[in-house]
Amino acid sequence: MQLQDKTIIITGASSGIGGAAALLFAAEGANVVLGARRGAELDQIAGQINQSNGHAVTLAGDVQDEEFAAALVALAQSEFGGLDGAFNNAATVGDLGPIPDMSAKNWRLVMRTNLDSAFYAAKHQIPALRARGGGSIVFTSSFVGHTVGLPSMGAYAASKAGLIGLTQVLAAEHGPEGIRVNTLLPGGTKTAMAGDDPQYHEFVAGLHALKRMAEPREIAQAALFLVSDQASFVTGSALIADGGNSINKT
User: Fold this and answer.
1) What are the residues whose beta carbons fall under 8 Å from the beta carbon of 66, sequence distance 6 or more?
2) pTM score > 0.85 for this model?
3) pLDDT tens-digit readout, 191-213
4) Between β-strands 85-88 and 7-11, what pairing exists: parallel, antiparallel or unpaired?
5) Which residues pair with 184 in a beta bridge?
6) Which of 120, 143, 156, 225 is catalytic?
7) Which residues are 8's β-sheet partners?
8) 190, 215 in Cβ contact below 8 A?
9) Which tens digit of pLDDT belongs to each residue from 145-172?
């Protein structure tokens, strides 16, 4: 029970990696505060957790809004007495295409969802973690923009690379307070974001040294490590869990 009696916020928790993390963290003893835009799907996952004697509460909202970040922290405090960690996982790819053809509207959407949301999360989560004497924040970044530049993904790459820089500064600023901050870089994962085209999945699988895509639970397990005390001396890192995508040339 790596998260016994700890309270963890998870965003993007209605499906995919976030949904898998919600189930895994709860099974490891955490009280989970689940956030996403789709309330019905959130409630379904929370229902599974609560029916299994876990503890989950939900709040539907958009990570683009600072008020949502504040409300998730307030919910953790009111329901469970405080906050011990967060897995800030919600993201969007946006419309794909070369930068000269990309609209400013799409650029801003991707930045608001992927990077501005991280600023809002840290701004409100860090004081709550400080009040508990420390804790752990994990952001979901990507190998895209870190080890690989995939064509047509300029906005996504820029936003995800920005998360790594933010992570490093937050880790340096708040390490003396016992607050660890890390970034998780998944490889291709079988989520709704990846679509359901078998030919596309086969192509993506071939980019990885393991020649397959990840299951959401596999990425959630890496997030569990970073959130838990198993990673007590890990901060400011960009943990690559990409099935060898970054090093594969075959």
Assistant:
1) 120, 123, 124
2) yes
3) 877 777 888 889 889 989 999 99
4) parallel
5) 140, 239
6) 156
7) 32, 85
8) yes
9) 999 888 999 999 999 999 999 999 999 9
